[in-house]
Amino acid sequence: MKIWIERQRSLIDFTVAGLLRRKVRNLGLMAVYSCVVFILATVMLFTHSLRKEASVLLSDAPEITVQRVIMGRHALIEHTDLDVVSKIRGARHARGRLWGYFYDTANGANYTLMVPDKVHTIKQGQVQIGAGVARARDLKKGKFLFLTTNRGKLFKLQVSGILSTESELVSSDLVLMSEQDYRNFFRLPSNVYTDLVLNVRNSREVTKIAEKISAVLPDSRVITRDDILRTYESLFSWREGILLALLGGALCSFIIFAWDKTSGLSASERQEIGILKAVGWETSDILTMKLWESVLISLGAFLFAYTLAYLHVFYFSAGLLEPVLKGWAILYPQFHLTPEVDPLQVMTLLFFTVFPYVAATLVPIWRAAIIDPDTVMR
Amino acid sequence: MSHKGKTADRFRYSDVVLMLFSIGLLIMIGSFFGGRDTQSRAPARELVSSLGLSDLALFTEARYLRHLSQADLHSAFQDHPVSFDHFPGGSLVMPRLIGITEGVDHENMD
What is the pLDDT of residues A286-309, one digit of tens each? Predict the structure, then answer.
């Protein structure tokens, strides 16, 4: 065993020395290789951890949400509907929610204005804002947030707190205000809500309760927590698929590039094989040496690129993907994803990037290694 | 120093390569066991639970992208009769096929 290890180490020594002789060519190949793996690994790591983040965070979302729909559009729901829903057997903690959007003409950002529940009571004239809003408007605790109502009047609200940056993934654009301020700002009557939310006493009855709500409120649309979770599950699968499909072109170019580099041996490489055979190397030695060469390049590039992708996603917030996700939005949450890696995904990437390269190198080398050294050297 | 000692002290490429590969493999395998930090999610979970939040604040450019789970199939095309979804984020979001509770087709109840 010791002899075998020593033999492999000597072969690695020889291989690395050979690779360093063709430094520019091999470093160029490794750079392209690393680039392709880096992009693929970044997309895979980012979407997987975001999917996981959504499933964990939104597992505490309301069990059932009831929206009123008029002419195919989300409409305000009345207090009487809340009473109807509250009376359904099995429904509990039913309450009306007040939330809506506000387009800030000052900076072109969209905010989500919301009235918190009774736990987060906010005094009239005050607001709590998400960290994204604070950044966009350069606000601190104690400063004033001015919003323009739909009648063109200025609405002055004092910032009583900024929501924690750790929660930015769900709260970046939130502006929490008192119910009175919210109704005054949007000129809403006191008997309407944006939608209704409720919990269900027995979680196995969620579908049944949803059916009952649909029966008593036929103009409503019922969204369960499972619907929310499935939305995010499918969203990130789709997003990952779109990005990987776009990267497919780059991957194909790389495969052609790698195939071209590996399937045909250069004259100097053929001569080298001939010399090695002439000085007593066996075909198996040459094959092992060349196998090490392709493993060092492909696995080395993979490990390097994977480490970079991991750091990029989990320590630098996937900054390179930000323009893709941000679109035209002004507000974008600054968040750190909790490292979540799917070993199967990584192993699949490893297999599809390393194995074809190694396999592509073997056949031409074997063909060169079995030819008579004299013929090869000539 | 003996000849054997000289051989042992000699710089070898294989030492460097094997060390780098070991570090890379350890990082890769170590990354598989990284997702146990539930503490960092606590503030966000608390906010989702207490405010009844239903969506991530990833895309704020359009209302149907900000609250994906609350928007229906047609939200992206509601601005006018032949409106196309023109927000960049919309091209990355899958058409919503759910919001339909099992057994009850709420979209077609009107």
Answer: 888 888 988 999 999 999 999 999
